[in-house]
């Protein structure tokens, strides 16, 4: 049983670190400034604008390209140990390739990094957070095996330019969202809708790309104390009842295991249930070979162990069941048909904000997920690289404060039971472009005013809470911030 209802103040382990995160397309703006070229989100938001709420775009976003000093000031107000941000490929390498390095982009990221270092805030860099150069998408994007070289070249440039000052690297943010939502589905750019096929090729190339970059870094750039790894997303999948335990296990292997098993298991390679299900479904559907591409033995070895930590983005939980009546029926290829499980959230589960329908507040799911990662993958060091929830605009975000309290408590429960969680990252420092949800869903500790050019940032109640949490290194679920005192550094 899972206990999250403890009321005494609880101290975080010594050396535990706290930060916040953002991503380039979600905050930078300046989409066509100083030589930046077009990426897949520019293309999507300009050519199919109204698939995004209010036809919003990231053209200006939080204008962090110009506001970076204020961003670092907020980090200082909060007392962050680190800040996780991503680099825009199409800004740094406008041709996509290393034949032209954009000096203005180098200048911007240098300024941001140096401003953080000046105040002892560690810059943590995500190399890829979804904004692929459009030109590479035209060449097939992550389904093209040449991406391995292209991504490696791009990362080599970043390591050469910023590696003297950055110690913590994230190769790819949420491969599952890249491949499933972008290639199989239609809820992220490039919006391909080729399920049961594209996502598996994307996944393979992406894992091999990640591993190549990992080994390049370790062999050529690594400094004392550096870590580099991948960021995986996972909801917790809870069986609807005893009868559906296997369905929940299968969906865990399809969703998280697809990326975690090749890297973190002892054997490497895809999870067995993926190989078996996709091979048999493919045969029944008339394919000459499995829709799941194979790794060569060398690739299995290269990918296995290629992450110094288990980067985890976690937000919510779903229930899972298997519909026995469709067993044996081979629908047209699709990822969830391959997985043979159905996910949903009961209507009476508490949400954080009505617009964000996918995000129900289920802290015990976080605890169970951390336990499962500990058991399944040999208790790896875990970095919580994102966690948070959305609210309406407004400063009094009590639901966010209680979300953070309950999820942090669940994390502490798992740590007490032996999970090696080493850092925690709140998503997000400030409101930003929330992909298909545009600027409707507000994830920020700071509110951003999109009606003014300055994109003024104002601390919410949750910012006061987070600041105090970081100061005391203690979780007190009865804490009430005193908002009459202005945020000070
Ligand atoms: C993260 O993804 C992203 O890394 C970050 O950029 C983003 O701003 C943040 O979350 C907040 O959304 O409609 O049921 O298919 C989180 C993982 C998984 C969340 C898919 C949205 C859609 C669920 N995402 N999910 S559903």
UniProtKB/TrEMBL annotation:
InterPro entries: GH, GH_1_N_CS, Glyco_hydro_1. It holds the Pfam family Glyco_hydro_1. GO terms for molecular function: beta-glucosidase activity. Keywords: Glycoprotein, Glycosidase, Hydrolase, Signal. PROSITE patterns: GLYCOSYL_HYDROL_F1_2. SUPFAM superfamilies: (Trans)glycosidases. GO terms for biological process: carbohydrate metabolic process. Homodimer. Belongs to the glycosyl hydrolase 1 family. This is Glycoside hydrolase family 1. It comes from Pieris macdunnoughi.
């Amino acid at each position: 049983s899972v206990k999250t209802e403890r009321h005494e103040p609880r101290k975080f382990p010594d050396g535990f670190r706290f930060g916040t995160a953002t991503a380039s397309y979600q905050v930078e703006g300046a989409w066509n400034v100083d030589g930046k070229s077009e990426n897949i989100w520019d293309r999507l938001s300009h050519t199919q604008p109204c698939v995004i709420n209010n036809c919003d775009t990231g053209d200006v976003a939080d204008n962090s390209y110009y506001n970076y000093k204020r961003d670092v000031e907020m980090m200082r107000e909060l007392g962050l140990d680190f800040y996780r941000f991503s680099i825009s490929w199409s800004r740094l390498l406008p041709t996509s390739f290393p034949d032209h390095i954009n000096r203005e982009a180098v200048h911007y990221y240098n300024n941001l990094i140096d401003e953080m270092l000046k105040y002892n805030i560690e810059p943590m860099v995500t190399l890829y957070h979804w904004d692929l150069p459009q030109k590479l998408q035209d060449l097939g994007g992550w389904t093209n095996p040449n991406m391995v070289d292209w991504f490696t070249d791009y990362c080599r440039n970043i390591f050469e330019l910023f590696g003297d000052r950055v110690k913590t690297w994230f190769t790819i943010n949420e491969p599952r969202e890249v491949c499933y939502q972008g290639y199989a589905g239609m809820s992220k750019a490039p919006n391909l809708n080729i399920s049961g096929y594209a996502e598996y090729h994307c996944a393979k190339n992406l894992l091999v790309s990640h591993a190549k970059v990992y080994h390049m870094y370790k062999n050529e750039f690594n400094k004392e104390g550096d870590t580099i790894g991948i960021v995986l997303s996972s909801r917790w999948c809870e069986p609807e009842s005893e009868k559906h335990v296997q369905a929940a296990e299968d969906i865990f292997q399809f969703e998280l295991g697809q990326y975690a098993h090749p890297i973190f298991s002892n054997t490497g390679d895809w999870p067995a249930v993926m190989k078996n299900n996709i091979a048999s479904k493919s045969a029944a559907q008339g394919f000459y070979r499995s829709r799941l591409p194979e790794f060569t033995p060398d690739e299995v070895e290269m990918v296995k162990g290629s992450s110094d930590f288990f980067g985890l983005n976690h937000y919510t939980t779903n229930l899972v069941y298997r519909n026995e009546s469709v067993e044996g029926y081979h629908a047209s290829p699709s990822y969830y048909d391959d997985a043979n499980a159905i996910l949903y959230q009961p209507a009476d589960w508490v949400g954080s904000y009505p617009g964000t329908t996918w995000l129900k507040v289920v802290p015990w799911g976080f605890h169970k997920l951390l336990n499962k990662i500990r058991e399944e993958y040999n208790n790896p060091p875990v970095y919580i690289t994102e966690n948070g929830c959305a609210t309406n605009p407004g400063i009094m975000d009590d639901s966010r404060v209680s979300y953070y309290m309950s999820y942090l408590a669940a994390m502490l429960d798992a740590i007490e039971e032996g999970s090696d969680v080493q850092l925690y990252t709140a998503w997000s420092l400030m409101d930003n472009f929330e992909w298909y949800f545009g600027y409707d869903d507000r994830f920020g500790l700071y509110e951003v005013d999109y009606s003014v050019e300055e994109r003024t940032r104002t601390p919410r109640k949750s910012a006061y809470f987070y600041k105090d949490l970081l100061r005391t290194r203690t979780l007190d679920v009865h804490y009430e911030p005193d908002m009459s005192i202005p945020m000070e550094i």
